Amino acid sequence: MVEQTAAVLDQYSIRMNDMLEWLSGYGADEQGGVTRLLYSREWIAAQEALSSYMKEQGLETFYDQAGNLTGRLVGSNPDLLPVVTGSHIDTVICGGKYDGTYGVVAGILALAYLQQVYGPPVRTIDVISLCEEEGSRFPLTYWGSGNIAGNYSMERIPAVSDREGITLEEAMSAAGFGPDSPYRSCLRSWDAYIELHIEQGFVLERSQQQIGIVNGIVGQRRIRVSVGGESNHAGTTPMGWRRDSLACAAEMITCIRHSALEMGDPLVATVGSIQPSPGVSNVIAGETIFTLDIRHLDRKVLDEYTDKLQQKLRKIASQEGMDMYWEENLNIDPVLMHPDIITDLQHICESSGIACRTMPSGAGHDAQVLGSQRPAAMIFVPSRQGISHNPLEYTADEDLMQGFRVLTEWLYQYAYRGECHETL
Amino acid sequence: MVEQTAAVLDQYSIRMNDMLEWLSGYGADEQGGVTRLLYSREWIAAQEALSSYMKEQGLETFYDQAGNLTGRLVGSNPDLLPVVTGSHIDTVICGGKYDGTYGVVAGILALAYLQQVYGPPVRTIDVISLCEEEGSRFPLTYWGSGNIAGNYSMERIPAVSDREGITLEEAMSAAGFGPDSPYRSCLRSWDAYIELHIEQGFVLERSQQQIGIVNGIVGQRRIRVSVGGESNHAGTTPMGWRRDSLACAAEMITCIRHSALEMGDPLVATVGSIQPSPGVSNVIAGETIFTLDIRHLDRKVLDEYTDKLQQKLRKIASQEGMDMYWEENLNIDPVLMHPDIITDLQHICESSGIACRTMPSGAGHDAQVLGSQRPAAMIFVPSRQGISHNPLEYTADEDLMQGFRVLTEWLYQYAYRGECHETL
């Protein structure tokens, strides 16, 4: 283990808090949250501030054309590809201080710490502040990591616009990035990626564990289910003669929940939105549309469950004499985290006596984009009450520091001692 | 039975069709429907046209201060209070040709027919075009019949406005009515009221019956049910740890339907509107609000069912660890039609070989307002596919004429021969 004395850890805990507080000033909004949208003035200022801070820690820094900012701790062996940690600092509108930002801040501090105690590593370590994850300004997610992974490129910039009609290309160019900027094109060669992030759920908090070792980021299917019945007068139509689409949808929602509970974790199935038509208290709904969000870590299980569920819902519709339309509008593959890094992280937690659990991530992260190309891993710390994307987002100092310790330890074992190298 | 020869009936059938067509020109809208809102230019013109038509039929006519238009066939015995038939000619926005209008038109033609064949009656017969039933311009219903029944008065005109901010009082005054108009105040003395109306449901059509004899207008309770759970991320919150308000509401909706089916006709219970919050596909709904509309002919059954249902829903909420709020915002008493008139009408149908059923009205009508003061009755004719409040509203000529026949026969028996007088 690295020497994590109480005094040194206390010092880094203070720095972590200071940095999170300091960064939350970039984009502080009137609601007490942080609004730092891609390529906005606040976002540019925050990246610049981070760049300066990285330099002060003795890191080499560089942007790429998309606006991803890297801080580099150069290793002694130039033949080894860099190992990368980091996350993103863009936020949702009125978000919290921790989502993404924590992973960037903790990554910079981890490199500072390692350099302070051990000097340069064998393998180069990069900390990256990815230029977009949330998709809260433009209707696309993972623009930053997507450019690195090759999902996007400067040759084909998506023709999307923000709410004010500004295109992604215009905004990127105005921020000083893009194909005509002085920056180099995106990195395409790296060894592995490890991201420290808040859980954005309450599993760790409720199970009183401090670290979540992510075994994968769930695949996701989103479906729009439409139930077609017959709209009639709520007073003049006897119960037995109705074709009530909302009543039928209610049976379906119950079926969805029960079948998901039966399937067990990590499967989740959610109906979050429902719209009966005409949606008036004294009229039987002729058509009801609801959304269905299904997630699982295993592609096969996700698909089998979804297929069986569709059959069940069709049976309910048929029994009730209803029409049913099933329209899928999102289908994302699960991405597994690398099993060797998972094992490394489990060992680190065990030997440090940290209460941890191996768990899937139900939310999407840059690690799933980078993890589709190269080995990736994620470390979760608890989110108080599971709250995220909200000014009330909070993680206790002690938990922030446990995440920092596990990240630092793994980077030390990996980049200084090469302990895990053979397996990747 | 009155002498309803084929030739005479054919003649009245043509007149009925002509009149319905002619009236639908007052307020004909671009969608092919009729929009004739209270005190609008179209409504005033239609009442005036009806007034002229009534005079041509030899009826005395008069308005009251509210704008109700009466056509009177004066009886030979001035000691007998008038028997009244009629309905309303105001419509919903983009309504059909039959709702209300049919009862007014058939009433005028019934008086014309009786006078043509039998001369003046013993008891005075009034046909009334009530000045508002739908509540489609102002947020109040039964303004016309309510003034007659004493629920409203010119001394206390409700302070309501239409969508353009015009008050009821302003609109009434601009139309030439109101307390300062030359018209007399509303009639408060009448003997009985009988209203011919389209069913606005599909029970008669599907059961292949031509006449519905209404035994009562159902009471109605409207409740806003709010289910409070916990809003969480749809990806990061395991199924077993959720407090999903929409899933709980779905269980409740199923319970509502099943309990209503179990209770049997004429009870109906409808959830027509539901609003989960935040209502986003990837967020578990923290709160879900839905409407509940319950109707029954028997006050006691309506209340017992509603109370038991509330208990059941509270039990579901409790089992799911949810909060539930129950807010009633409408509670209308059932109004029974007069049993003797029901018997009269049943006899008329039987002796004429008309397929009829005795049935409740699930929708509200002026007959419930006037019926709260004096004996009332309603005759229904089939609505094609149960469609109403829509340009597609339609009743076949043959059915329109059966309604006319039954109404005319009852008025003849009642006002000419005094056959039912003793019992009322």
From TrEMBL, chains A, B:
Keyword Zinc on entry: yes
Residues where Zn(2+) 1 binds: 88, 99, 197
Residues noted as binding Zn(2+) 2 in the record, renumbered to the chain: 99, 134, 389
SUPFAM superfamilies cross-referenced by the UniProt entry: Bacterial exopeptidase dimerisation domain, Zn-dependent exopeptidases
One Gene Ontology molecular-function label: metal ion binding
Keyword annotations of the record: Hydrolase, Metal-binding, Zinc
Cofactor, how bound (note): Binds 2 Zn(2+) ions per subunit.
Top-level lineage group: Bacteria
Binding site for allantoate: 222, 282, 295
Pfam families xref list: Peptidase_M20
Cofactor(s) this protein cannot do without: Zn(2+)
Stated family: Belongs to the peptidase M20 family.
PANTHER family in the cross-refs: ALLANTOATE AMIDOHYDROLASE, ALLANTOATE DEIMINASE-RELATED
Descriptive protein name: Allantoate amidohydrolase
Species of the source: Paenibacillus bovis
